[in-house]
Design brief:
The protein has one domain (about 5-245): Up-down Bundle (Four Helix Bundle (Hemerythrin (Met), subunit A)). The protein is built from eight helices and two strands, in the order H-H-H-H-E-H-H-E-H-H. It has helices at about 5-30, 30-55, 60-90, 95-115, 130-145, 155-170, 190-205, 205-245; strands spanning about 125, 170-175.
């Protein structure tokens, strides 16, 4: 029997799934901008269901699986279909295969998360989470409407495979976005930039939303790579120390 406290988190999870389906319906009817906003609101629901699940202490394996199925619709199929219909439908099957790459990477990312995650709150995620990847595509479309005289297809030829590779990578990403302030001033600079960016998004979401999402993706990528390099250096130092002890 389902815990009554889990009703609210599951409601937001299912709302996420509905918004993903509604986005697909709108794409098929040519309402692309509305579809993009449906994907954006779906990410908000996805964030809320996790927060509410932890707050109500109903974070469970069932909820995790339900969330992943909803994410596959809203953040895998919907944004890929949006990109296909708006930029690559004229290419036919090759355009479909190109956009399917994003779905394939997304479901791989979700499957890997499900088999490695615990029900406790995680501070780091292996690979780019699928919600910000979907946000990048949906906000890109909204921004592109302000530059209708510019050919945006070449950018998508980089963005789609780039996001796909990041999702299946082992680079560690933090929560999106990590707006937490530290007693060390230098560690407050990035959260402060995020906060300023969020204000810009509020003022002009059409143009500022996509750069704000990409700010998270790029800064987290750089931090993840630097972290990996440091771990490798530490491992190398340990091996050298062990060899010295043996000698």
């Amino acid at each position: 029997m389902m815990n009554k406290r889990a009703v609210l988190p599951n409601f937001f999870t299912l709302t996420n799934a509905f918004l993903g389906f509604f986005a697909i319906v709108n794409i098929s009817q040519g309402s692309y901008k509305l579809a993009a906003w449906c994907i954006i609101f779906a990410t908000i629901c996805d964030m809320l269901d996790g927060i509410l699940a932890r707050w109500s202490k109903t974070h469970s394996k069932f909820g995790m699986q339900l969330d992943s199925f909803a994410d596959a619709i809203s953040f895998g199929v919907a944004p890929a279909f949006l990109v296909y219909e708006t930029y690559f439908s004229s290419v036919g099957v090759w355009g479909a295969l190109f956009c399917f790459m994003f779905i394939l990477a997304g479901i791989f990312r979700l499957a890997r998360f499900n088999v490695t995650a615990t029900t406790s709150k995680k501070r780091k995620f292996k690979g780019l989470p699928i919600p910000p990847a979907a946000l990048a595509l949906s906000t890109f479309y909204i921004m592109a409407q302000y530059f209708s005289d510019v050919n945006m297809t070449p950018l998508l030829l980089v963005l789609v495979p780039g996001l796909s590779l990041l999702m299946v990578s082992t680079v560690e990403y933090g929560p999106f976005p990590l707006l937490m302030f530290h007693h060390n001033f230098r560690k407050n600079i990035l959260p402060l930039i995020y906060a300023i960016g969020l204000i810009c998004v509020y003022i002009n979401p059409g143009i500022c939303f996509f750069p704000w999402v990409m700010l998270y993706i790029f800064t987290s990528l750089i931090k993840g790579i630097v972290g990996k390099l440091r771990e490798e250096d530490e491992d190398a130092e340990v091996v050298i120390d062990e060899k010295r002890i043996i000698k």
